[in-house]
Amino acid sequence: MTHPAYVQGTLDSLLSADGSVDPAALSLADTTFVVLDLETTGGAPDGGGITEIGAVKVRAGERLGEFATLVNPGEPLPPFITVLTGITEAMLRPAPPIETVLPALLEFLRGAVLVAHNAPYDVGFLKAACARHGYPWPGPRVLDTAALARRALTRDEVPNRKLGTLAHFFRSPVQPNHRALDDAKATVDVLHGLIERLGSFKVHTLGDAIEFAKAVTPAQRRQRHLADGLPHVPGVYIFRAADERPLYVGTSKDVATRVRSYFTAGEKRARISEMLTAAVRVEAVECAHSLEAEVRELRLIAAHAPPYNRRSKFPERVVWLKLTAEAFPRLSVVRRLAEDGATYLGPFSSRRTAELAAAGVYDAVPLRQCNHKLSLRSKTPACALAELGRCPAPCEHEITPEEYDVRAALPFRTATSGDPGPVIAAILARLDALADKQRYEEAAVVRSRLIALLRALIRMQRLDALTRLPEVVAARRDDKGGWEIVVVRHGRLAAAATSPPREHPRPTLDAAKLTAETVLPGAGPVPAATAEETERILAWLERPDTRLVETSGDWVSPVRGAARFSALLTRAEAAASGQDSSVRLSVTDRLDDARSLRL
């Protein structure tokens, strides 16, 4: 018989998946609690080891029931446990095993909040027992009296948070004695004493108590009201300062739930804590579906550059590699695209990445690397690269413009818009030559250039395939049975809508097209939007459940394009990240690369 796998979780993992608390949680006075204590053999929670269970069900200070039993742990009882608890092996021998006790205990827990002192320990043993014996863990809300005491009581009041110390402090008539039922009864009195204290902290509901027990900062607790009244819809949320300046922009499929998570212990980022202190309100922008929310988030971040957002703030800072339009073209890093007949590659997120890709091109083709404007009439002294055979010396007219174009410029132009095979083959050959000579550090540098170049080529051709289309209309089913609809024009989200369930989506789709933004074509692979926006749209369109409804042309990529080198890029990236320590690709990989170059 195989048992379900068990992994002990933290107290946070016993709450809901996103760490949020139900806003409709009952007040503490109306909540039913089951206060539980276990005695064990002292080992790790492996599905056994429980020797005694004691539980008391209470509500509004009234005891509703008790549950107590010895449990046969199925293993020898350590002598020190007998000394500590007074429980002997003779007492446990006739007791029922845990698999017999669990059904009654789980029924006793049904519909109640589980309370324990150092709750992760007790809950860990119960979850392990359920996993081992095939019982589903009901996942009750959990309150830890030790965690509550750490937050509600000062060191001046109690020297520690042990159950005995707290029971004495709250004048419990039952003192803990390491027997399960008595310890559970003492924990009941501690719980009631703590609930009285919680009122001074403005903690009145179960949800408040659960959050209070966790390490929530005073700023989070003070600003928690900012999440009130937000809608449970997909959209964008904006934390604003007193002067209405956006501080932080985010997106979620459920705005209300996501914003509430900023005020829980799960949020530990220092910059977010600082942001919460400065925020005075949260604005929600409702969206048709998650894709529209993602796109609106990108546009708002780009427009306002909120100080507490780190990503996507300055899309205008991208750069391009430009093959200049002159007699002897050269590569130049530029910030703008122009309709000047030049060939461009990009966009790159930084100048360093663009220069790394350019170095990869120089490894493959004899483009000149100088910045001089060369004349067809007069000569210019050659640099050291000509002497090393790395440049055909167009400056000294050692090569004609026509021959230079064929040998140096044409392979780059072809690589950007069609087949990069010759360029990639030349870089791989250089990589092999360096590896053969055991010049592994230099080979690793060439590999990094190959990665930068391949990333840019694959990305640009993928973007260009979509952005050249005047219009694409697509739809996918949502969770409620309706349809999420998008209208994309030249790679920009022009309209978004959601059709109601059980209704034909065509009227909604037609209305979206009629009201969609007018998008004009432009230069380059991202003429109407940022590369990040178009890539988000591409990811949505390429999902298996997305249906293309209408396109204004053929959505195609070059047959011999850069995408066929995706596997090579993945292997090179794995090698560079340390997952593969070899510089040279394996024999099988090399054969695959050679085969792909011939396709």
Task: Describe the protein in words.
With 599 residues, this protein is an alpha+beta fold. It has four domains: 23-214, Ribonuclease H-like superfamily/Ribonuclease H (Nucleotidyltransferase, domain 5), CATH 3.30.420; 219-304, GIY-YIG endonuclease, CATH 3.40.1440.10; 319-464, no CATH class; 470-551. 40% of the residues lie in helices and 16% in strands. It is built from 21 helices and 15 strands. The chain has helices spanning 79-85, 89-92, 98-109, 119-133, 145-152, 163-169, 180-198, 206-213, 218-222, 255-261, 270-278, 290-304, 351-364, 384-387, 401-417, 421-436, 440-467, 506-515, 531-541, 566-576, 587-598; strands at 32-40, 50-59, 62-70, 113-116, 142-144, 235-240, 246-252, 281-286, 319-323, 331-334, 343-348, 472-477, 483-489, 492-499, 546-551. The strands form four sheets. The protein has a five-stranded mixed beta sheet, with helices on both faces. It has a four-stranded antiparallel beta sheet with strand order 14-13-12-15, with helices on both faces. Strands 7-6-8 form a three-stranded antiparallel beta sheet. A hairpin with a 7-residue loop joins strand 9 (319-323) and strand 10 (331-334). Helix 16 (421-436) runs antiparallel to helix 21 (587-598) and helix 17 (440-467) crosses helix 20. The protein is elongated. Mean pLDDT is 88; it is low at 1-21 and 585-599.
